[in-house]
């Protein structure tokens, strides 16, 4: 498989690029395989095998693996090589709680800065989620889902915090996909974002905080103690 054909342009363009085009395309392709479980937790990865598989240089592979390591999706250890990161419930729960704190605590800043461009972007992302759900593409749905929440949070203008949210989102979705029942209703995932958008349009901070908190807490069932906790302010 040549490096240019790793993935569709839609997915590649939605993931922020931090390296060369070729290594970014490989990063996106490997991220997808890790999130979907096609590369299993703890599976060993070698630069040579990946370079041969994707018909690219080992330097390109090395750059992509460094990005995956920064995202917490692979572990690179001296003398032990590179392995796909584990996917444990305790980590997923901690990241979900952190995500809820990050997203819900700064909604007053989001609402103050919200404009027509933000609302238009979020509506377009919601429509993209609906299309992906209709096509049965769970990964593309998750990509647009992450874009929705990232775009919403970026409005708070806290650029040093955004990478923390980005990591939480990808690991939340990875855990959810790897532990979901087959043939689940993807349309419901898309439609769960409608009340969030409506509360933003109404500029109702408290309603938005409650809806977003519940939305995040119910992504995966970790028990009543997470869903019953008060939303961060």
UniProtKB/TrEMBL annotation:
Molecular functions per Gene Ontology: DNA binding; DNA-binding transcription factor activity
Entry keyword DNA-binding: yes
Domain HTH gntR-type: from-to ranges: 20-87
Domain of life: Bacteria
SUPFAM superfamilies: GntR ligand-binding domain-like (SSF48008), Winged helix' DNA-binding domain (SSF46785)
PROSITE patterns: HTH_GNTR
SMART domains: FCD, HTH_GNTR
Pfam families: FCD, GntR
Cited InterPro entries: GntR_C, TF_FadR/GntR_C, Tscrpt_reg_HTH_GntR, WH-like_DNA-bd_sf, WH_DNA-bd_sf
Alphabetically ordered keywords of this record: DNA-binding, Transcription, Transcription regulation
PANTHER family assigned to the protein according to its UniProt record, in alphabetical order: GNTR FAMILY REGULATORY PROTEIN, TRANSCRIPTIONAL REGULATOR, GNTR FAMILY
Protein name as annotated: GntR family transcriptional regulator
Species assigned in the record: Alloyangia mangrovi
Lineage of the organism: Bacteria, Pseudomonadati, Pseudomonadota, Alphaproteobacteria, Rhodobacterales
